[in-house]
Amino acid sequence: MAKEDTSYLVLARKWRPQLFEEVVGQQHITQTLQNAISQKRVAHAFLFTGARGVGKTSTARILAKALNCEKGCQINPCDQCTNCREITLGISMDVIEIDGASNRGIDEIREVRENVHYTPAKSRYKIYIIDEVHMLTKEAFNALLKTLEEPPPHIIFIFATTEPHKIPATILSRCQRYDFKRIPFREVIGSLKRIVKEEKIQISQGGLLSIAQESEGSLRDAESLLDQVIAYAGENIRDEDIAEVLGLIDRKTLRDTIEAIANRDVERCMEVIEHVYHFGYDLQHFCRELLQYLRNLILIKVSQHPEGLMELSEEELEWFKKQAEKFQFDQLNHLFSLLLKGEQEIAQSTFSRTMLEMTLIRMATLRPILPIDEIVKKLEALEKKELSKGWKEKKTSPAFGRVIHSEDPERDQEKEESSLKKRELTREGEVFEKNEDSKDLKKEEEFGAAPPKIWEEKWKGLVDFTRARNPILGSFLALGNLVHLSDEKIEIGFDKDSFHYERMLEKENRNQLESICHEYLQKKTKVVVSPVSLGMGSKRREVLNKGETARNELEKRSEKREENPIIQEALRLFNGKIVEK
């Protein structure tokens, strides 16, 4: 009884390219090699570099067949003659394939160096294909140098490696280098479509996309994964089969997660984690897939033609666009940062599920945010409007002066403004009045020897200078107050527990502020950021005159604080409230 032939040729070997035109995604290399053959400018040493499974060894074999074909050197081998068939089967005496990982010593290379002097058995060239050549030892490379530089005319070396940086520069300089690219997803999917059509396999476009994405640009890996899925599911492959066999996260799970975050549904996020955990998915892999999902949403936000940047079917692309409409770009950017930080914490923690839960809770409870520069612009616009309105009210208010009617209104206005300047110095709701008694005030240590007016001018100059250099930092600085200024130190106070105080404590902002202060003051002065009690302001904010008019004005402004549109806008933007202390 004859034995049944049970041998099976895997798809990666069965569909291995045999001609230059069949090499996928490497046209820049195959075209160059074909031109070199047609022009009779074939080098004696080649170095093929690139990721795994992108066609390095296959191209080396095709080049060997093109050079040793019985019909002569031509840009495409006939693939029918004896030499071509022997090279395809790997049994040619004149095309020697060597595994650099297992033949890496100097003795093996010495043997090669001695054999190169012998002419080919029946072919035009004796070709050595050394795979993973970077595994050779330093001594082996040195033994190969002289032969590689001036080999006999019938010898051609073809080296293949995934790590060209490990190859000595003396070897690299003696070879023509060709860098193989990762194969684009579309071309991987096209090759898989051709294979499943020939093999009569039923599989969806989404299933092929999942396999292509998992292969990471390696056609050989994609073919091996397809082989594995066929072995499990047979000729009719469902998307669920692919996810189960390859341990992939179902796209519906990722979609549901983002939908729950958009709807601020924390309970649904916990259900997703429960599903992911109990099905045995790797939580880090889930985070990476979710990061890729967020990346696609961000690309839709920033690109007018995102379809060229993502490998998605039309149906999936439409779904991504619908989800992207539920987010602002800054919100997606913040979500991406939260998830990226969470992925790192999950990798380092022994409580990976808990860390993932906390990460998704932070993402689901993240409120929509406005860009900080937009917030600052709105507050500045309101501040200018309020100051302009306040100045008009001052000129007609009994507490600050009387309305003067005369024949020369411009002169009267100048007199009124001059009188106001003499009577008060107002900044951020606190009144400074100047009179003769102010000369008797004590010069406190933090106030220094300079009068308040000079301090105000220096502070205003520093704020304006900072705004010119860094608008956002200058806006933060305008909310602070000058506490102390000397040759050794400049101290700036902010209301404690405030948003701008926390921002100014950040290392990057403090470094920028210190650099700007040094540039403005023209000397190396230590910059200190200090907290002050809410409503107290700077230590130097004092009422220089306790006159009845000033007290009345302060009480009046205090009563109207809640009606201030700037405060109301800040409360609305930051979802805050006024707390009395």
Q: What distinguishing features does this structure have?
A:
single chain, 581 residues, Rossmann fold, three-stranded mixed β-sheet, 25 helices, 9% strand
Describe it for me?
The protein is built from 25 helices and ten strands. The protein has 581 residues and is of the alpha/beta class. The protein has a five-stranded parallel β-sheet with strand order 2-3-4-1-5, with helices on one face. The protein has a three-stranded mixed β-sheet with strand order 8-9-10. The longest helix has 25 residues, at 372-396. The protein is elongated.
Radius of gyration: 38 Å
Strand content: 5-15%
Tell me the number of structural domains.
3
Q: Structural class per helix/strand content?
A: alpha/beta
Shape estimate: elongated
Name the average pLDDT: 78
Cα end-to-end separation: 100 Å
Query: Main β-sheet, in a few words?
Result: 5 strands, parallel
Assembly category: single chain
**pLDDT below 50 for ≥5 consecutive residues: which ranges?**
1-5, 397-407, 419-449, 534-552
Number of contiguous helices: 25
β-strand number: 10
- Strands of the widest sheet, in order across it, are 2-3-4-1-5
Helical amount among residues, as a percent range? Answer: 40-55%
